[in-house]
Amino acid sequence: AVDDAIPVLFDSGIRRASHVIKAIALGADAVFLGRPYVLGLAAGGEQGVRDVLQNLLAELDLTMRLSGFPSVEDLSRECLTAGPS
């Protein structure tokens, strides 16, 4: 949040759980999904949306555990590393 007074909402380009983790580590309080949700709906209706969300949550859990972070509360900018320049 901005000085904990204004919530930061991230919306754009979220496709994978790693994108969610990066957004939260950079300070987002919430992350919105658009395209994954719509693709699930188009491919399988209501069940397709459920499948997309379940897969995203499973990927989020796995990515967090493999990265050594038990909770999203443990994420911060310091968790991110710069890639090759």
What does this structure look like?
- By secondary structure, the protein is mostly helical.
- The protein has one domain.
- The chain is 49% helix and 5% strand.
- It has two helices and two strands.
- The protein has helices spanning 17-25, 35-67, and strands at 9-10, 30-31.
- A two-stranded parallel sheet has the order 1-2.
- The protein is globular.
- The mean pLDDT is 89.
Summarize the structure.
With 85 residues, the protein is mainly alpha-helical.
Helix content: 40-55%
Shape: globular
The count of DSSP E runs of length 2 or more, i.e. the number of strands, is 2
Biggest sheet: strands, sense, closure? 2 strands, parallel
What is the count of structural domains? 1
Strand order of the largest sheet: 1-2
Low-confidence stretches: none
Structural class label: mainly alpha
